[in-house]
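Hello, quick one for you while I still have it in my head. A protein chain has come my way and I'm curious about its shape. Can you walk me through what the tokens say about the fold? No rush at all, and the record is pasted right below.
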Amino acid sequence: MILNTRRCDGKFWDLVKKYPIPPRVLEVIQLFGLYGVYRSHRPMIDRSLITSLVERWRPETHTFHFRTGEATITLQDVEVLYGLPVNGHPVLGNELIRTIGDWQNICQRLLGFTPCPQDFNHNSLKVSALNAHMLRQPQLTDMATQDMVNQKARCYMFWMIAGMMMADTSGSFLKLMYLPMLEDVNAIGSYSWGSATLACLYRFLCKSSQSNQNEIAGFLPLLQIWAWERVTVLRPQVIAQRDIRNIFPADLPKGPHATRWFARFSWTDTTKHVLKVFRDALDSMTEDQFIWEPYSDELIESLPDYCRIGRDIWCVRAPIFCWDVVEVHLPDRVMRQFGLKQMIPTPFLFDSTHFHHDRRGRPNTNWELEHAQWLPFWNQRLQYICEAPINREPLRYGDPYLIWFRRITRLVIGNPTLCPQQQQGYVPNSTAYETMVRYIHSMVDKAKSLGDQPSMEDFYIFRAMARKRWCCW
């Protein structure tokens, strides 16, 4: 089953394409750390590619399990690709009970307009209401005060936060809990928006990996571009960069690394929208088809400062937060992504069913108090930086880590017992290879068991095994 991908940013990009964000407003957005999300634009999400990745996600480790080992999205990816700040205060707040009238007053004060009562659904606001307000006043006059500039900036930032970075499965509503966090313009940039974005994506990956789920949300552009950066058999070929002069003024600051994927693609060497092909590509992926370190030191140094300012904590092993969401960042399981030697990781004592807990039925909850047992890890994060020797060479098949990894995971998602001739359409090769390897292993084991003086009956049994195996090919 291919997952439905939920997001509510389509009208946002239509709006900024028709009415580019005013320079004064953009300065505020840049100051608060969300400029990279706007500057990167959005890729078209491939639902089949996303589904093939979710199939390999393990909620208990927050990693994808590939044939080459574990890999995951880290704070490094968030900051390098989108420039979101990762070092700062956790994105937590107090779940106060508010009436529609309360939210109308907050919207008027912070966003500059009062939505109608029917534009609310509990503690969420219709995207269409915010979009209509933005279309009524798309530009600022030269006489606009700083308060008006801040209100306009909050409109864009609220939409980016609630509709992209922490998007939920509603698809048409924005959670209002983030809005009061934008009131103090001096505090907005002090939050770790990057870790909150990653926590939400982890949460939706955990939920969507369950067999009864049919949709996924979160910052899916981050997930897809992460895969394009690292898995060569999944990425399209970039033909040319798109003309962005009608979207972004020429004098804008340089964008983050994800901007290179706002381009025109060729699909001659890869596919799109075909789950069976993506699944087979990951099932048969070899070591040279996964790039452990796509961001060289030279590339990182060439990026704007806001894409590397938090590099001191890229390797932190600690919980990350976004209101009710608390997930665990475990770089010690993917040390090769940082150019370090991978050891057998130690488990983090964390409830593997954590993703079943959410905000529903939890009014008047102070999430800082609720997560009190986990907050000290983040507050003292510099004490939990993972360290390891530099990785000098690729791991070999007999490396202790890979031996351990093969023992505790499933390498093939496709059904390795199904003969290829029985399938319609595209025939995956990886399942055939896996079946062949298993047959050969069983024959070798049988041959070893025969000893030095096999009987004629043993020969007949062995011949029957060989014929049976050959029939599938």
